[in-house]
Amino acid sequence: xxxxxxxxxxxxxxxxxxxxxxxxxxxxxxxxxxxxxxxxxxxxxxxxxxxxxxxxxxxxxxxxxxxxxxxxxxxxxxxxxxxxxxxxxxxxxxxxxxxxxxxxxxxxxxxxxxxxxxxxxxxxxxxxxxxxxxxxxxxxxxxxxxxxxxxxxxxxxxxxxxxxxxxxxxxxxxxxxxxxxxxxxxxxxxxxxxxxxxxxxxxxxxxxxxxxxxxxxxxxxxxxxxxxxxxxxxxxxxxxxxxxxxxxxxxxxxxxxxxxxxxxxxxxxxxxxxxxxxxxxxxxxxxxxxxxxxxxxxxxxxxxxxxxxxxxxxxxxxxxxxxxxxxxxxxxxxxxxxxxxxxxxxxxxxxxxxxxxxxxxxxxxxxxxxxxxxxxxxxxxxxxxxxxxxxxxxxxxxxxxxxxxxxxxxxxxxxxxxxxx
Length: 421
Fold this sequence. Notes:
By secondary structure, the chain is α+β, with helices and mostly antiparallel strands. Helices cover 66% and strands 10% of the residues. The protein has helices spanning 2-76, 84-96, 140-148, 191-251, 267-336, 342-370, 381-398, 417-420, and strands at residues 107-110, 115-117, 155-162, 167-178, 183-190, 377-380, 412-415.
């Protein structure tokens, strides 16, 4: 569990270390997009209003210039059949029909504030509106007359009824004067019309910004997925190396298998695995040397035991050999005294045969004792003890030791019998 927590913490640390700068950059980028879009809209708004003002100015200026040209032409002709009022009447009728927008028209006042022509509200014609105020209290006719003679700014903002809605709306007026007739001609743009166009442009700009934001978010999500994938792959490879060492250490006490270096990803782990493998190789060599030394010690121990056993063999053979020698002497003596009969020969021969078999049995017992066993087999406790007593019993008895045995067990176990003996 600690190992898993460590790998998880490593993953989170790396992922957070990457995601925070990534999100910060993404946030700054989005903020820059919003800021730029806001500036773009301000610029767009300014440029559009400026363009509409220029259009309005151009329209009114062109009308002013045309009227002045007509007046100058009229003055130069001596045979004009029209007087000034008739000429003004013709021009006013032409201006009354002039339109360059749904709510855009030309109006004409004299410099005293009397309305000369108003195509939308003809009921105002002939009235002096010099003291007319809008809802904000602005003397709008005065301001327009003043602006018409201005050298810098011919625009005036005021409130006026919009023809298409019959509602009061903000209007941007532009005025020019015709000094030959003391006229002020003007026109205007209703700002809500400009606002409607700007709203449509702003909506389009928002859609563009929203599209950019979606692209940015998609890009950063894609980048984060790639980062997540590669970080996960790195952590997974690190975990694999850790698990390889973990599994090795779990079984290192019972096996001498080496770590597979080809399965390790990082150079540091490869070097650690090489060191561990070298340690295992050295341990195997040391264990082999220990086994060899143990075998030598065992052999030396067997040789020492063999010396003791030879003494026991000599001790056990001494009595049978003495008995054989005695029987043989007795047999020779009776033959010399001519007292040897068949029964005596048979009796003494059987004794010599018994003693010889005893010697042979002793040799077999010692040979089996020193014969190495490489395979385990079932052995009984009592049989093992009897086999050992056959070798050492005489030595024990000769030491005036009374040996009492009660061998009643019939249990067996799997062992190397000669090693036990």
